[in-house]
Amino acid sequence: MSAAPETPLVERVRTRLVTSGGQAGAGELAAAVRAEARGVVGDADVLTAVRGLQRELVGAGPLEELLREPGTSDVLVTAPDAVWIDRGAGLERTAVSFPDEDAVRRLAQRLASAAGRRLDDASPYVDARLPGSGVRLHAVLAPVAADGTCVSLRVLRPARHDLATLAATGTVDAEGAALLRAVVAARLAFLVVGGTGSGKTTLLSALLGEVAPSERIVCVEDAEELRPVHPHVVRMVSRPANVEGAGQVLLRDLVRQALRMRPDRLVVGEVRGGEVVELLAALNTGHDGGAGTVHANAPREVPARLEALAALGGLGPAALHSQLAAAVQVILQVRRGGDGARTLDAVGILRRRDGAGEVVVVPAWTRGDGWAVGRADLAAMLRERGVAPPWEGAPDPQGPPEPPEPAPPSLVPARPPRAVSVAAGVAVLHREPA
Q1: Residue 8: which of 40, 141, 55 has the closest Cα?
Q2: pLDDT, mean of residues 145-156
Q3: Which residues lie within the region annotated Disordered (predicted)?
Q4: Rounded distance, CA 430 to CA 71, Å?
Q5: Domain residues of the chain, as ranges?
Q6: Torsion of CA 302, 306, 308, 309, to 10 degrees
Q7: Fold (topology level) of 59-156
Q8: Rounded to the nearest 5 degrees, what angle is found at the Cα of 115, between the Cα atoms of 109 and 118?
Q9: What single string gives the DSSP state of each residue in 15-46?
């Protein structure tokens, strides 16, 4: 499928609509076509011209049908004849094309204008949300984009799955789901980490659905994605500046406002800037059970990632590591496989190096190798908050059942780690004694 070829008639109609400020409805387009054709075109020609103009002037133009496909997550334009789509199993090249570079540029500028943003040679790139469509736009104009205008459209589908649905689809197994419910019930603060499109928001939303109905959840997001199945959720979304450069509402500003809204759970949809400072401060001042997502490819990368983000908020490395060790208890890592399947993947414990230095990661569990030494620390945290570890009392395939209460480590040698097939990745944050 390709956009309609450019004709002098279509160009004259476009110019007429632009100069007159007319609407782009079917009736207005037909009237403009007849006026510009001066009565020398038939009904079939009018219909063809109207359909071509509608594809260009309404919605996302020739990309609209791709965005409406149920499984679409991304639509990318890298050249007039190179349009790509991700339906959940990786990028595929489509048959959609544009007549020329100017057509791609016009679409990008029209979408930016619909979002209330400026896109021209003086401001050659834009990042915005398209109103009423659940689509996030990013575009870069030539010559900044060396090979021509690039358009990236991300479909932001509301995350509505609950934990039972994720278990049914293989993201977690039954034992993993029980472990995640225990983390939520104990009000342990957690971060969900993973790469782009790995399912971080989906898992976060599912876990928020496990929060007790009597608790109030306040969510702060850059893009409206979290839709937990819960009776008491307040959602706030940040806002970019308008074309005059006014009206910007930052994520970190909303975190501060959320603290005054009596949250039982404070949630940041995606921690990507200086708002990490406000979030960690909140989690260290009585707002336990908070949550968020962070871009990181593995649990061991989380401290470095948060250190970089904290620098944007004016927090130094030493203060960040102290805040992190005290504020967050659990990390859940999700990964997207080559086949598009999303699963919980790894476990790790964050400890302070030498008892007082940087926070570092000690493996606790991996999908391939099973449990490691960090499980005992997680069990202690759950018991401290009155929640029994879900694996307690289960038979050990490599030995007798473990005792219900751990003996002091100074009196009994450490038990060797045992492999358990649990599809969950958990990382525990705690501070060792100095």
Answers
A1: 40
A2: 93
A3: 388-416
A4: 40
A5: 1-58, 59-156, 163-385
A6: 140
A7: Beta-Lactamase (3.30.450)
A8: 50
A9: HHHHHHT---SHHHHHHHHHHHHTT-S-HHHH
Query: Residue 2: which of 60, 54, 70, 55 has the closest Cα?
Result: 55
Element (H, E) at 85: strand 82-86
Backbone φ and ψ for 300, nearest 5 degrees, come out as: -65, -20
**Structure tokens of 285?**
């001042």
Torsion over CA of 368, 373, 374 and 380, rounded to 10 degrees?
140
Average pLDDT over residues 146-167: 88
Of the candidates 177, 114, 95, 66, the one whose C-alpha atom is nearest the C-alpha of residue 424 is 177
Tokens (6 digits) for 218? 């306040």
Q: Which residues contact 208 (CB under 8 A, 6 or more apart)?
A: 217, 219, 226, 228, 230, 233, 265, 267, 291
* 421 in Cβ contact with 398 (< 8 Å): no
Confidence of residue 377 (pLDDT cuts 50, 70, 90): confident
**Which pTM was predicted?**
0.74
Helices (H) and strands (E) in the chain, counts: 13, 16
**CATH architecture of residue range(s) 163-385:** 3-Layer(aba) Sandwich (3.40)
Asked if pLDDT for residue 87 goes beyond 50, the answer is yes
Element (H, E) at 310: helix 302-312
